[in-house]
Specification:
Blueprint lengths: L2 H14 L20 H8 L3 H8 L8 H10 L4 H10 L16 H8 L6 E5 L4 E4 L1 H7 L12 H7 L12 H19 L4 H12 L1 H7 L11 E6 L3 E12 L4 E7 L5 H25 L1
Antiparallel strand pairs: 1-2, 1-5, 3-4, 4-5
Protein name: Helix-turn-helix transcriptional regulator
InterPro entries: Cro/C1-type_HTH (IPR001387), Lambda_DNA-bd_dom_sf (IPR010982), MLTR_LBD (IPR041413)
Organism: Streptomyces hyaluromycini
C-alpha cells in the first residue's frame, strides 16, 4: 500500500470536484477548493473520520469494498479507479459486465436526478446505485448479496419481488427477463456469470426453465411500467433508458406526465419516502 500516494491522490481528486458536479448545494463561501472532506465521506457512505485519516496518510489499508465506494463517491473514471486500487495495495478489478464501477458521466447525470426515481443496473439486472426516490418507489435493491443481487434471479425465486408490479404484467416481465439474460449469456459465452445464472435458474425455477426453452430474444418493454406501491397504489410511469456500452450498464429513469394522477402520486411518494427515511434515521440514532 502506497499510503502517501493514496493520500495525495484522494486529496487532489477531492479538490477537483465542485459541488455542482455531485449535486451538493454550494452553501456558504468555501475557503478551500473542491468539496469538503465531510461531503466526500457522505458520498462514499463512510465516516468523515475514516476518510480524513486516509487523506492524511494515517489510515489503515482500506478494503476492496471501501475502495469501490470511494471511487464511486469521487466520480472516478475507470483508469482512475484502477490507479486507486493499486495505491491501496489491491489488484485492479477485471473490467467485466459485473463491474460495480459506475461511469463518471452517468454518475453526474444521476446526481442531478435527486427528485426523480432513477437507478443504474448491470446487464444481468444487478442494481448498483439508486436515487432516494427510486428507493422509495422500488425499495432498496442494492442491499442484496450473491445471486440475489440480480433482479432476474429474485424474480423467479422470491415471490416478494413481484409485489412491486401489477399481477397482469407479471408474464411480460418474466419473458423480458429471460430474453435479456439469454442475450447476455450468448454474448459472453459459457463460463460467464450470465450463463451460470441461467443454469442456476433452470434448476431452481420451472417457470424460468420453460421460458428458457422458448429461446426468445429481443423482447423488450414498452416505455411505460406500472408500479404497485403499498402506500400510493398503482403508478404508471415512463421508463427511459440510457446505456453505457463500455460497461454494459443502464441508467433507468422513471417519470410521469405533469398534471396527471400519476405525477401527483409520484410527488406524494417523494413526501412519504422522506418521512420514512427520517423515521429510520431517528430510530437508528436512538
Amino acid at each position: 500500500m502506497d499510503q502517501s500516494g493514496l493520500a495525495t491522490f484522494l486529496r487532489r481528486r477531492r479538490e477537483a470536484l465542485q459541488p455542482d458536479d455531485v449535486g451538493v448545494p454550494p452553501g456558504q463561501r468555501r475557503r478551500t477548493p473542491g468539496l469538503r472532506r465531510e461531503e466526500v465521506a457522505a458520498l462514499c457512505g463512510m465516516s468523515t473520520d475514516y476518510y480524513s485519516r486516509l487523506e492524511r496518510g494515517r489510515g489503515p489499508q482500506p478494503s476492496e469494498q471501501m475502495i469501490t465506494a470511494i471511487a464511486r463517491g469521487l466520480r472516478l473514471t475507470l483508469d482512475e479507479r484502477d490507479h486507486l486500487f493499486v495505491l491501496a495495495g489491491h489488484n485492479a478489478p477485471a473490467r467485466t459486465t459485473r463491474d460495480d464501477h459506475v461511469n463518471a458521466g452517468m454518475m453526474r447525470i444521476l446526481d442531478r436526478l435527486e427528485d426523480t426515481p432513477a437507478q443504474v443496473v448491470t446487464a444481468t439486472g444487478e442494481t448498483i446505485v439508486q436515487t432516494p426516490l427510486a428507493v422509495a418507489l422500488l425499495g432498496d435493491q442494492t442491499r442484496f448479496t450473491g445471486l440475489a443481487r440480480s433482479i432476474i434471479y429474485r424474480w423467479f425465486t422470491d415471490p416478494n419481488e413481484r409485489t412491486n408490479y401489477v399481477p397482469d404484467d407479471h408474464p411480460t416481465h418474466s419473458r423480458v427477463y429471460v430474453a435479456q439474460l439469454r442475450t447476455v449469456a450468448s454474448r459472453e459465452g459459457r463460463g460467464s456469470h450470465a450463463a451460470a445464472l441461467a443454469d442456476r435458474l433452470c434448476a431452481e425455477s420451472s417457470e424460468f426453465a420453460q421460458l428458457w426453452t422458448q429461446h426468445e430474444v429481443g423482447i423488450s418493454y414498452t416505455n411505460r411500467k406500472r408500479i404497485l406501491h403499498p402506500q400510493v397504489g398503482v403508478i404508471s410511469l415512463h421508463c427511459q433508458t440510457l446505456v453505457d456500452p463500455d460497461q454494459a450498464q443502464s441508467l433507468l429513469v422513471f417519470t410521469a406526465t405533469p398534471g396527471t394522477e400519476d405525477h401527483d402520486k409520484l410527488r406524494l411518494l417523494s413526501v412519504v419516502g422522506s418521512q420514512r427515511l427520517g423515521a429510520s434515521t431517528t430510530a437508528a440514532s436512538g
